Recover the amino acids of this structure.
């Protein structure tokens, strides 16, 4: 593993252990690592399964609950764009970069390899994994948004009913 990637192990009790610090860390601390430019990789302690994606989603949820850094309309727009469209876009972008700009593409992949220690094929594999993961991420985001919107919609329905009741009472008073 590249030494610039911070290895985090998640135990069955859901605690996160930072191997480089030999200490448990929180989602908030992981978010701070990422903000300062560090890469993280989260693996299941028992199985070795890569859980980075899931933990990054947890960080987004956690941060969103605290500060609502993504507007509801932006979340709704993200859900409206279908996973297929997004996957097709990522795939076509990757193909266009490779086909239309071979020199730039080669330089880009060389740069990525020098900076992050991964070959072009590894990066392409990573992009392919991202494409596959996007649909799952989008579904998780959709459920999160539904959870956020449900109480608001319920309250709006109640207010609408109250307004109709008041209008009816006003009409009877006339």
């Amino acid at each position: 593993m590249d030494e610039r990637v911070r290895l985090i192990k998640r135990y069955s009790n859901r605690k996160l252990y930072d191997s480089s610090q030999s200490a448990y860390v929180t989602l908030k601390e992981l978010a701070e690592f990422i903000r300062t430019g560090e890469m993280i990789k989260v693996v299941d302690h028992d199985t070795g399964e890569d859980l980075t994606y899931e933990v990054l989603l947890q960080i987004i949820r956690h941060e969103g609950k605290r500060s609502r850094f993504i507007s509801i309309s932006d979340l709704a727009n993200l859900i409206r764009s279908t996973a297929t469209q997004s996957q097709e876009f990522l795939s076509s972008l990757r193909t266009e970069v490779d086909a239309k700009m071979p020199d730039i593409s080669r330089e880009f992949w060389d740069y990525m390899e020098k900076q992050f220690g991964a070959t072009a094929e590894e990066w392409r594999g990573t992009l392919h994994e991202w494409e596959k993961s996007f649909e799952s991420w989008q579904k998780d985001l959709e459920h999160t948004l539904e959870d956020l919107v449900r109480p608001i919609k319920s309250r709006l329905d109640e207010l609408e009913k109250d307004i109709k009741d008041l209008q009816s009472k006003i009409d009877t008073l006339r």
